[in-house]
User: Fold these one by one.
Assistant:
Number 1:
Amino acid sequence: MRSLPRLHRAIVACRACPRLVTWREQVARDKVARFREEDYWGRPVPGFGDPAARIVVVGLAPGAHGANRTGRVFTGDRSGDFLYAAMHRAGLASQPSSRSRDDGLTLHDAYVVTTLRCVPPDNTPRPDEITRCAPFLDEELASLPNVRVLLALGAIAWKAVLDHHARLGAALPRPRPPFAHGARLEVRGRWLLGSYHVSQQNTQTGKLSPAMFDAVLAEARRLARG
């Protein structure tokens, strides 16, 4: 198994999905007006956080003008603002915001990854793209020896974590438990928790409130303590 730095270099160099390569580079080239003067990352985005983490947050994919711009997961957009503010309140992040790769943010007992490492068009990955990216999720999670809780943000991440356990040979319930906010499942000594995604679509409509997400993080911390 590769070290995390070696794995991260392999993730950044990946060009396995032509549609995603084309899109991520087009977004990085065309930019948006408010970031016109910035250099976009425009490559796959590896995970970020504490290698000794007991809690891993699993998202969907890099944001087009967030992580695809900054090169760090959930950094530089409203989803990241919501996520890291909540993690800061929970004592898992050193500061409540994340603007760039070099802004000084550190995570304690937590690690953040995405199911897909490249931004997809319309924020909608294809099943074959998730399948090609899955070995990166498997290897990154295998490189985090202390994980006790996997917090899936949304249905795609929930399925990705269940698929990850299935690839490891875990006996999953049949039928598989569906995604729901607050859903909980123990698999091979680890807990899988579900939360609505921290996207603007959810947070600005009230589908996911700070209090709701704080409660999920509090449950994650409780389960992580064992």
Note: Strands lie at 48-49, 55-59, 110-114, 149-153, 184-187, 190-195.
Number 2:
Amino acid sequence: MSLNFFLPAKHFLHITLHRAITILACFLLLAGKSFAQDQDYNQFWNEFSFTRDLNQKWSLEANLGLTTSSIPDKDDPFNSFTQFYFRAWAHYYPGTKWKLSAFYAYFYNYNVPELNQRKAPEFRSALQATYYAIKARGRVNFRFRYEDRHLQNDSLYFEAVSRFRLQAKFVYPITGHKIEKEVLYGFASEEVFFKTKSDISGPDFFDRNRFTIGLGYAFTNDIQFEASYANEILPRDGRRDLYHALQVNVIFTNFLSSVKKAFVRDKTAIDDSN
């Protein structure tokens, strides 16, 4: 019997990993060739988040967001205003591992690259469940969101679009055991989007894939700053759009300090943006 059969475990893992990487590289190469062309966009995403814990079971949140984008012949991510939104959340915590959420939002969409018209004001509501698979120094959570979108078309009618989003996220405090004052932390997430067909958002069922990686810093126990890079891949009819986004978030926790504080939660990197 050949001694190669008894390769040490670490050698076997090395060979297996090498083959997996080779197969993945070939798949990505072939996938890239299946599209007629790629269109790249550079974008800037900015969001201010305000949260307030009411008690051990409930909290409220409000978001204000702004997006700018490049255009095909100009790479400047601040070239064109594309979106402004306001979103109001209610969060319910049935246990230590689950968070159930709902929001209602207004989005003013203007020259959004993936939409098939110049203006598309939108009212959006959503139901969301977040499962904390690991709640230790390094946190892993899985997020499931259903969005009911109503986008106004050029005839002033609102088209209904359903969208489903699945996300996995990892958050890790780097300079402390949890996210608190003067602690630097890192985070990364992977998310996939699926949607129903519409004239405004297009006929594609698979909407996009979004990968995000970034750093955050807690200036105080109630104020956090985050900067991240987001990469989105949007397969469209005969092409593939690529988004490269710089995202900056500012998070204010328990911003209504005049209200008696009944409960304080451990802070995590923002996981509900966009």
Note: The CA atoms of residues 181 and 220 lie 4 Å apart.
Number 3:
Amino acid sequence: MERKSRRSFLGAAGAAFGSAFGLQGLSAAVQANSSPYRRPKLKITDVRTAEVRVHGHQTHVRIYTDQGIFGEGEATDAADGASAIIQRRFRRMLIGQDPLNIDFLFERMRTGGIFAGAQGGQYVTALTGIEIALWDLAGKATGLPVYQLLGGKMRDKVRMYCDSARHEPNTPAAEEMLSWIRDEGFTAVKIDCDDRNNPHRHDPVNWTASNREIDYMVERVGYVRNFFDRDIDLAVDGHGRFDVPSGRRLAKEFEQFELMFFEEPVPAENVKAMRDVREITTTPICCGENRFLRHGFTDLFEANAVDVIMPDIQKCGGLLESRKIADAAHSYYIPFAPHCVVSPIGTMASAHVCAAVPNFLALEWHWIRDLDIWKNFVQEGEIFSKGWIEMPDRPGIGVTMNEEAAKSRQVPGTPWFEEWKY
């Protein structure tokens, strides 16, 4: 920062004091003309939300301060209802606080809800949106990108993989989408194997897979695997649908495709069931998008139930919490491949964590069917190129919402960053 003389400082302060808004002007002059360590502390003045629906329901959070700086975060999946939790519970805990004390505020809100669902679900998802907004605000206040605050960069760019859901073999629609993925330069792709409308399912509730149903899934995975060269990795998602016998059979069948990972062949809440699948196959097993906080991952590590860990950074607790999960995974030599279905704001926030941890594998991208809104959602435009995100040097998360575009997907009947009225 350029050193200012005492006279120039007093001149600026005097001019400000004489303005119509003397005290605010004086504060601005102090901020502009003093060393950073002498600046007045930031104070949170308001917390507001907006809700959009693209790939699922996302809640955007803004935290405002007395010095005009605000931070923005994003929460997803369990975010329906997050606005009410944020406004009725977290807002009063944040007003007047120093937003740079992120871990303190996080723990205060988390432990303050120990009897209100603070172990997971909507509570932690809402808390996640707050936590990410605090990191964005801290980066803007210090003039640093968030990855620098998380320990610095391990890498300059972050590898993305494209989730393109299901594909019917040898159809124009599948060929067009898979060709686009290849031409865009992605080095990895993920598809779904579970299908409620699989013509060979015998029961609408029970997901025990029949022989023909398994053949049907293997055929589709084989089609996508053969579409791409070997240098493009393939992952498959089971969405936690299947029981242990079906999960085992699928994992064994998928060995021929040498997958990057098979995501949640069985529900994530039973660790022993996940381990039972992992133990009989060479297909790497991935889990984690529906687990919360670092506490929700330790049993997976201790039971040797996973080969790849996949927290959703927009609902598991936020950026520092995800860093802690990644560090715990690293001590078990398990790669970190976050689930990510959010806007460029949340995706870039996730990328800051991915840039800062040593065991990062790949970050999901899931807006292939919503390209127009994706490219216009932030003022910076497209945030990745050829399947990679180049990490910016801009302060905070490094992107700014384009409100005109984002508001086109506003959830009807929800507020748009409006002042909360009790």
Note: Residues 113 and 123 are 8 Å apart (CA to CA).
